[in-house]
## 1
Amino acid sequence: MPETKPKNQITPAHIGIIMDGSNDWVLERNLPIFEGHAYCYKKMVCAPEWFFSRGVKIVSFFVFSAEDWQCSQEEINYLMKLLKQVITEDLLSEAQRKKYKLLVSGRIDELPGDLSQSCYDVMEKTRANQAGTINICLNYGGRAEIVDAIRKLIKNKIEIEQIHEGLIKKYLYQGDLPDLDIIIKTSGKQQFSGFMLWQAYRSELIFLKKYWPEFEENDVELILRENS
């Protein structure tokens, strides 16, 4: 059971996670690169409950960057197949059982095959759930999100005088989500990775030395205790 927090301790509402280090993790263990991806996404399915059970409302995962298309075609094909399974089976099953809402943020329409439609389907199926929100950033880039918001503003013929920070926020991929309170990056690399640039305005940054496949529930307890 999670420990009771002191009354003056505030649980962060929105936490972002940059899941980094799976490649280094497999190299150190002489494992196939694909096995690292599988471990990475399995851990992503487990982690939301660790946060939600301690009062966090939203967890955003940086799952696949718009720059990750530079990987080999074989690796891309594997990742897209794995992501479809994780989103439409593993995460959806967990979300429906525990009443979590699933969101997918990014340039969804550019995803291959029927993956884009699968993303819209899981969002619709979990739309009414309120026990916690899992935001999957897929084919995502922080700069791309801001560019796409500007394009929508222009397309909707918004006058210059009408533009303000609150309006721009509404045109982001998930404009209703609050800003990030904490961003966690695993692997020990102190790089921001361009994750949710607009929403990270006042975020606390935490760089963990361990790789994402090594992330465990006790890490969540430690992070929330020391940073709430």
Note: Confidence is low (pLDDT under 50) at residues 1-7.
## 2
Amino acid sequence: MSQEAVDSDVDLHVPAHRRELHPRTLGVIAIGGALGALARYGIGLWLPTVPGGFPWGTFAINVVGCLLIGVLMVLVTDVFTGRPLLRPFLGVGVLGGFTTFSTYANEVRGLLRPGSVPVAFGYLAGTLVSALLAVIIGMVAARRLWVLR
């Protein structure tokens, strides 16, 4: 039985990659995920979704999370290269627990009803475009700030 990679950039046949399965790594992912999920829950309480209305809370969560992942990827590849637990903690854990694309998909499905179909398509396209732009803005801003430093 062959083992499948748990991450797209992990090859379990390479011994150095196996450390991603280390209990410390899984622990920081779990702690980060709990923190990210708590933050998402708090924002959901602060910005509740009105039935049939635009889900501003989830939209904000996903766009901010994408902005932060853009910043984080620059930091882990260019700035803090010697910190192997930083990406699992912040990227997989905190931001993985914070962002919620499953809720986004479920909310789009819920809005596909008479009277809210335009909102559904606006939310569907608006989140996709905004999230992608947020990643790019986060990366560009982080690189520029790092270069200025």
Note: Residues 71 and 109 are 30 Å apart (CA to CA).
## 3
Amino acid sequence: MNGPGRIQVFTGEGKGKTTAALGLAVRAIGRGLKVFMVQFLKAPDTSGEHTAVQSLAPMLIIKAMGRKGFIKKQGPDPLDTRMAELALQEACKAMLSGSYDVIILDEVNIAVNLRLISVQRLLEFLDSKPANVEVVLTGRYAHPEIISRADAVQEMKKIKHHFDKGGKARKGFEY
């Protein structure tokens, strides 16, 4: 990598946070960098990106570490909390391994918002970031302390969406 690694955040209510992170990953791969993405709230083989990137391995590895279904906002299930902690540990292991130039924590902001992991735990992760590694955090509801720590923050803003009129998620477009 040329220059120091930075911390980037893709947040907001609009679509495109994971897509922007994947676009960054493809650009990085095109320059010979290796990318590791851990997905906090997605189960294996549930999104189009899981099969699409197989041909990019080993330059891009995606590890989906969530489970199928939705997490209730009333209080996290202990299993979801454990899975989020394991996902953060996996991201930390990859980041500290020296094998990757870019680490993407997909939907980590929602994991913090749902109290699956604490903002303090995520800040500790960022504190352990080697100087030459780029870290990208995605998901709605980025915590103010994470925004403050980041070098760049992009907010995706929804103007209009077919979900507003009862539209369903479509394979290949929303997942």
Note: The chain is about 35% helix and 15% strand.
## 4
Amino acid sequence: MKRKNNSPSASWTGEYQKHSKARTFLFILQIIFVLALLALWLSVESIRTSKSLWILFFYSFPAEFLLSTVPHEPVILYFGKFFPPLKVALVAGAGTLLAEALNYSIFHYISFFSRVQKVRHTKFVKKIIDLFNRAPFPALLVAAFTPVPFYPFRFLVVLARYPLGKYLLAILLSRTPRFFLIALIGYAFKIPDYLLLALFVGLILAALVPYATNFLKKKRREKSDAA
């Protein structure tokens, strides 16, 4: 007689297999939704210069999605010039919570791929997960509040099987005060739009530096191997 495996890992696997088609459809839909929002924001000037808080709300999706393709700081500084900092923080925080719920769902889907499972069971990743599990909530609070790159934690919480509710609570308690401080700076100093645009472009270029460096190193290595 076979025993049922009631471990958390087994329950996650069973849940994934039961809803695999639905999850695949949801995964594709989520990706298309965020990419469409990003394309719309980048291609329509009237949207980029709009003072509607709905724009800030929907901008939170591409700004907080997976690897965070666009920075949120310049946009929050911009809206901080026109609205009370608390209102800006709450709107940006609400959008961020939904975006992080999407991130969790997508990484949850990806985490069952065979390659990801192999990576999860390597000694290095196990050590990182064990280290995170010693104080997961404080670690999330610090990482989400400070300027450090947050995207590794989005995948780490899924690998560590950290509950979605606690993850979103940590995001709420850390991101909202961060957004408030940024909006407060925008409200107090009224930074000119051209400086905000320069900051926006600068942050994107700074985020691309590691990828460009790795690409150049790879090309140099290929040339040296071919020589």
Note: The first helix runs from residue 8 to 18.
